[in-house]
Amino acid sequence: MKHLTRQQLEDYLAQKLPEVEEERVEEHLYACDDCLARYMDKVQEHHEGESHEKTLAWLTSSPSQ
Q1: How far apart are CA 36 and CA 39, in angstroms?
Q2: Nearest-5° Cα angle at 32, 26 to 36
Q3: pLDDT, tens digit, for every residue of 8-58?
Q4: pLDDT category of residue 3 using cuts at 50, 70 and 90
């Protein structure tokens, strides 16, 4: 079985794939534990990045009066 590329996983997470490709990635993730684990790592990285960005925005915002 050919594994998904890093780019495919990132594009899937960012919802940048055409519908047909998205379905193919989903089918592969359902069948391949290795790619699913890699995808879940990407999801975790994505959420940590969002959390970090929100924290930085909060820390750098001026206090409301």
Answers
A1: 5
A2: 65
A3: 999 998 899 999 999 999 999 999 999 999 999 988 887 777 765 665 666
A4: very high
Helix, strand or coil for residue 45? helix
Element at 42 (helix H, strand E): helix 33-60
Structure tokens at 20: 């047909």
The answer to whether 12 and 22 have CB atoms below 8 angstroms apart is yes
What are the structural domain ranges in the chain? 6-58
Write the CB contacts of 30 (distance below 8 Å, at least 6 apart in sequence). 36
- As a residue count, the chain comes to 65
